[in-house]
Design goal:
The chain is an alpha/beta fold and 223 residues long. The protein has eight helices and 13 strands. It has two domains: 117 residues, Rossmann fold; 94 residues, Winged helix-like DNA-binding domain superfamily/Winged helix DNA-binding domain (Arc Repressor Mutant, subunit A, Orthogonal Bundle), CATH 1.10.10. It is elongated. Bound molecules: calcium ion. Calcium ion binds next to strand 4.
Length: 223
């Protein structure tokens, strides 16, 4: 999961990025329109938090642009404007949500999780397989599996997007801090670890390779 924060108040954007990191979200910070457009050009985002008033223009420009390029990306506008006309204008520009400043951080997280449809528990349970992202723990038939770090995060991401083919690029953007600084074979390494440490010892298949397109969570296979 990757989030772009476009906010020129430095204390606020740092607090947001650090807080979101604790919830397992990677985020990038842009302090103006120009930097935001740069990030949007090089990385894929699941969600964008954008402040309306930016030093070099209106955050609503980003809303319009993102929605034209990728309507599925969730865009939440943050603003100190508390009149209803402003709120309506933001929604008309394409915003998915509008949060007035000052806001409570827990409420912000709850709203963005609702937007991303991961409300409630983050534990993933598929038949006898339980993935607990908060504790970085995998349990299969009451047995704990030693899979940690990036391979764990790759498995969790795929399991959250089951029934979808996830490309290497999307995995890099969602999980690696500086996705353009690593080669896509780090994904192959992570997938290999999943197969060696989880699938093989347990005699199950959790991830399948879809040629030239990426990977798919496929447990329980054939079900
Ligand atoms: Ca501002």
């Amino acid at each position: 999961m990757r989030i772009l924060i476009v906010e020129d108040e430095i204390t606020l954007n740092r607090t947001l990025a650090e807080g979101l990191k604790e919830f397992g979200y990677q985020s990038d910070i842009a302090e103006n329109l120009k930097d935001a457009l740069y990030y949007l050009d090089i990385r894929n985002y699941d969600l964008i938090l954008v402040d309306w008033m930016l030093p070099d223009g209106s955050g609503l420009e980003i809303v319009t642009q993102v929605k034209e390029a990728n309507p599925k990306t969730v865009v939440i506008v943050l603003s100190a404007r508390d009149d209803k006309d402003s709120e309506i204008e933001a929604f008309k520009a394409g915003a998915d949500d509008y949060i007035k400043k000052p806001f409570d951080f827990d409420v912000l997280v709850a709203r963005l999780e609702a937007r991303l449809r991961f409300g409630g528990s983050s534990i993933i349970e598929v038949e006898d397989l339980i993935i607990n992202p908060e504790e970085e723990k995998i349990i299969y038939k009451d047995r704990e599996v030693e899979l940690k770090g990036k391979p764990f995060e790759v498995l969790t991401h795929l399991a959250r997007h089951r029934d979808q083919i996830v490309s290497k690029e999307q995995l890099l953007d969602a999980i690696w801090e500086e996705p353009e600084l690593v080669t896509p074979n780090v994904i192959e390494v992570a997938i290999n670890q999943i197969r060696q440490k989880l699938d093989k010892p347990l005699g199950i298949t959790t991830v399948e390779t879809v040629r030239r397109r990426g990977y798919r969570f496929c447990f329980p296979k054939g079900a």
